[in-house]
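Tutorial handout. Part one gives the primary structure; part two gives the three-dimensional structure as tokens.
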Amino acid sequence: MKLGNWFITLGVIVSAWSCTPSENIVYEEFESVDPSGWDWKEGKTFTFEIEDDQHFYNLINGLRITTDYAYSNIWMIYIIKGPNGFYKKEQFQVTLSDNIGKWKGKGISNLISFQSPILTNVKFKKGKYTIQFFQNMRDQELKDVNDVGL
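Part two.
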């Protein structure tokens, strides 16, 4: 095979490989929020199991709001518990719109979806994990949040 043909073949293989999905979703779930508002005491709880401790994992928070949501961001807290006393609690912010009010998420009609990485490239030990999300805004009952997910 000529050197030029070899580079073309290699280019086709690399292009095909890079077009395949790079994400393996191990777990995905959403919980609905009460239409009257998301109370800051009401955690949204998700339980997942890690069976392979040789890989790195990303935990991504999913959020669906309506276009009537009053703020350009949302502050949230996650608490994750796992085997052997694993515990982590952090506050994080999701920026929902730019400084002129254009939503940064993707949506159809009046429902906008957001994905925010909260832990990236983490190795978990085998076992069951539970993560809870709480809203941490000034409003005790936060209006126009539809769903929270992992």
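Part three, for discussion. The mean pLDDT is 88. Residues 3-19 form the longest helix (17 residues).
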